[in-house]
């Protein structure tokens, strides 16, 4: 079973870091010149268009970032080349090239570009009210999920007891069932996002999600009911499935909403980066707060806070206003036929597009990083001889919150560090950044497996999560750039489902290895390095290191040159 890919011509496979920076600086200067001259309405600030079209939801992409591959309108646009139509000769002045290269290869030039990016992000938040409300709504909804996640893990550990032989397997099942609803329901979420008003769908799902913490609260009563602890564990499983079903339908709506809130590739990259940073910040601080709140106030309080966060998220999305439906009104004989027809259309769209293989980027990374949640619990329970006094005085819940927060901090720092060196107008730079992300993930797993002090585990966890953050965001940039907006919900659903399935399988395998083979967390972390090496030679479908990803790139290159369909299994 293969995926057919049709690609246009031209494909530079490699680029140096200096070339990435130089291309990025050229694009910045060109964009600034065009904007300041006021010669193009397409490069107007995104917030003006958002304010103008908020009532009818008719925001349109102002560039060629969305393609309809049914019409093959992108035949002359190289996949890894800039889609900018400016003549390259205008950028080849010797003095200007040298200045641009120095601006991105020297530390001062890099810091200057980084500060420019930070200022542009702040201006986007200040001037684009719909996106600002959307982002804050996302933060509240995601923060509640972290409170519940930390509290449910702590509650399950208490129910099963520290000496339970099956505690790690049970925890792996918790992580897996937290992820599997996404695999099953994401396609339906994609159809929901592409069929109806995305804002209204998100509001309804937030309101439904506000009731799911009730099942977690029931599990806390079962803990002290005198019944077998597995009744309480079963209730936690049921509550988790209920909540994650809502999240599985919500995520495609959220991911496909971002391109509608901004116009232009530049603002799309900023908005996607800010959304990723918001997720990471909530993972960093929300998980830490969840750990301390569980330790100080108990799991029941965290579950109640989750319900409040859902309600706040719904109120903020209601404040966005406007109509955000992108699909034309097409009548189907039944809902099932609508779901079936739109799902088949989405599959054909991906299988015939030249960028379809990008949906496997996150999945290959999740095969390695998916065991992190289970390993963090084991690492937080381990007694270490840390010389830092406050670490030795932390309890398990606090250490667990710290590890999850370190993961979030790494996911913040990774994209921020790589952002000045990449540009959404240069897909080849984004792909190379994904390769460096895989390298960072490998180094992080190696460090966690070799060094036992808790502070060292935190440092290498940050390195691993930084690479994961780079890969997650840059692969999402590529999908958003090339996918037509009316298909983005279904494409995002497939991308999310594959990554979630990989993460669930990795978590189950990690729990099984710890319980059945009595491997330590450090030993399992070393095993993940073997997974990385194995993925390198498993072919283009599941390749994670640099060589494997470039193998996919070369395959697409041959398809460019031949102008003929080619399957990934050829």
Automatic annotation (TrEMBL):
Subcellular localization(s) per the UniProt record: Cell membrane
InterPro entries with a match to the protein in the record: MFS, MFS_trans_sf
Biased composition (Basic and acidic residues): 53-63, 83-93
Keyword Transport in annotation: yes
Source organism of the structure: Seminavis robusta
Membrane spanning residue stretches: 133-151, 171-191, 203-222, 277-296, 303-321, 354-379, 400-418, 430-463
UniProt-recorded name of the protein: Pfam:DUF894
Main subcellular location: membrane
């Amino acid at each position: 079973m293969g995926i057919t890919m049709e690609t246009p011509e031209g494909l530079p496979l490699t680029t140096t870091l200096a070339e990435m920076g130089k291309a990025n600086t050229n694009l910045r200067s060109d964009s600034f010149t065009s904007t300041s001259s006021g010669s193009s309405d397409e490069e107007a600030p995104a917030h003006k268009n958002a304010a103008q079209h908020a009532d009818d939801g008719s925001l349109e992409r102002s560039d060629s970032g969305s393609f309809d591959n049914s019409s093959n309108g992108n035949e002359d646009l190289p996949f890894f080349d800039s889609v900018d139509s400016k003549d390259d000769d205008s950028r080849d002045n010797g003095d200007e090239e040298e200045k641009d290269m120095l601006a991105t290869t020297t530390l001062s030039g890099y810091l200057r570009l980084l500060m420019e990016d930070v200022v542009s992000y702040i201006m986007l938040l200040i001037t684009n009210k719909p996106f600002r409300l959307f982002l804050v709504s996302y933060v509240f909804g995601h923060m509640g999920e972290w409170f519940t996640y930390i509290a449910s893990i702590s509650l399950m550990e208490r129910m099963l007891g520290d000496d339970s032989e099956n505690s790690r397997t049970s925890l792996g099942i918790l992580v897996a069932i937290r992820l599997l609803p996404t695999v099953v329901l994401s396609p339906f979420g994609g159809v929901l996002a592409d069929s109806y008003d995305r804002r209204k769908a998100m509001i309804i799902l937030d309101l439904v999600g506000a009731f799911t913490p009730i099942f977690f609260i029931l599990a806390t009563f079962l803990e002290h009911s005198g019944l077998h602890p597995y009744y309480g564990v079963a209730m936690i499983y049921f509550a988790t499935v209920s909540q994650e079903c809502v999240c599985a339908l919500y995520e495609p709506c959220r991911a496909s909403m971002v391109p509608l809130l901004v116009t232009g590739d530049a603002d799309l990259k900023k908005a996607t980066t800010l959304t990723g940073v918001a997720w990471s910040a909530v993972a960093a601080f929300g998980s830490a707060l969840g750990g301390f709140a569980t330790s100080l106030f108990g799991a029941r309080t965290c579950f109640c806070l989750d319900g409040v966060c859902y309600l706040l998220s719904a109120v903020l999305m209601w404040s966005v206003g406007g109509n955000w439906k992108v699909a034309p009104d097409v009548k189907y004989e039944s809902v099932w036929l609508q779901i079936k027809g739109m799902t088949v259309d989405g599959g054909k769209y991906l299988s015939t597009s030249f960028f379809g293989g990008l949906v496997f980027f996150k999945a290959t990374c999740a095969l390695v990083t998916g065991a992190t949640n289970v390993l963090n619990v084991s690492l937080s329970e381990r007694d270490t001889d840390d010389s830092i006094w406050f670490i030795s005085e932390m309890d398990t819940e606090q250490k667990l919150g710290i590890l999850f927060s370190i993961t979030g901090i790494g996911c913040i720092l990774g994209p921020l560090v790589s952002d000045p060196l990449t540009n959404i107008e240069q897909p080849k730079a984004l792909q190379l950044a994904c390769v460096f992300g895989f390298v960072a993930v490998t180094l992080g797993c190696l460090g966690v497996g070799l060094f036992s002090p808790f502070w060292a585990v935190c440092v290498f966890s940050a390195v691993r999560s930084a690479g994961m953050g780079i890969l997650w965001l840059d692969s999402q940039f590529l999908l958003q750039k090339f996918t037509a907006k009316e298909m983005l919900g279904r494409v995002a659903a497939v991308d999310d489902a594959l990554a979630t399935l990989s993460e669930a399988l990795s978590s189950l395998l990690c729990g099984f290895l710890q319980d059945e083979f009595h491997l330590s967390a450090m030993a399992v972390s070393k095993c993940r390095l073997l997974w990385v090496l194995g993925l390198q030679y498993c072919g283009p479908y599941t390749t994670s290191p640099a060589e494997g990803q470039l193998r996919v790139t070369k395959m697409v290159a041959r398809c460019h040159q031949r102008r003929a369909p080619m399957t990934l299994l050829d």
